[in-house]
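the two lines:
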Amino acid sequence: MAALPSMRPLGCLRSLIGLQDAVQPQITRRFISTAYSPKPKRVPLPPNLPQQFLSQLPERLQPREDSKRVKVYPAPPSTRKVCKDPIAKVTESQMAIHDPKGERKALFDYRRNPRSVKPGDILRVTFKNGDPFNGVALSIKLRGIDTSVLLRNELTRVAVEMSVKVFSPNVQSVEIVQRAERPARRARLYFMRSRKHDRRSVENLVGAYIRQKRAFLGGNRRK
Amino acid sequence: MIQLKSLLSCIDNSGASVVECVNVLKKKRAATIGDRIVVVVQKQRAAGSEGSGTALANKVRRGDIRHAVVVRVKKELQRPDGSLVRFGDNACVLINKAGDPIGTRMNGVVGQELRNKQWSKILSLAPVHV
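prediction for all of em together
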């Protein structure tokens, strides 16, 4: 498209510029990041190089066949295959230790066993050191070996709540003092903390139960 | 969780009925059962209402600054065997600087954690402990 030099005397200069234009713009517009130069081919070492020269080369230039190979180790054996459900296994083994006959489990498995403790029942838990704790069962948390029951009572006009781990070796016995009159319609009776629904002290109920029990047993066994 | 400005009921016969925590001693966090705190007596019991005689009534007065031991807390406490204990209120017992209780009687249940923290004198005064 350049005009003929005879028409415009200085056009020859333009043709020079135009020539540059054709080459330059691409170069000037390029970003540094797009500037690409292919990686230079590695110059092969001259053949039949004596062995003693190789040691003079830097390490990265020394001819090594496995220089680029990464060693791949076999995957460790899967623990999942060894034990599919470790939690269940631990629970099972702990149950075998703390509740070999499964009585305690049956006593608290309120979802399956109709004769079990239910929320709203009044319980008496006796510990290994002889201390008893009585209370209304507000909630039974079925968590395998960590199964616990939350008891609420009132001692000296102060509410006391105690969550007891059922399978704890500290727990000697759990007795049902009184069943709920009718089954509670929910699993967690936290509303019993409110003043309106509070059962207050269950000590006299428990006292009556103990007296009854003692009379039934003929008084030959205390408590 | 007893901290600055917490109001506690005082369950001994020292004469205070409601006290306010102003400092937790030997601890950088909230006090719990068995911890020593500094309290201000906010409300005192009516004098002579204890019935034990005028000599005993009201050893402390409103505005007194005293040391006290927390014996009940609302915040649940975990025992070493995994069980939890929670009381319906926060309560304390006033003590003197030497650590002896100011009152001679206590009414109300206290936590068993006092035993581990060398407050067996308070524990023996209490009618019930859980």
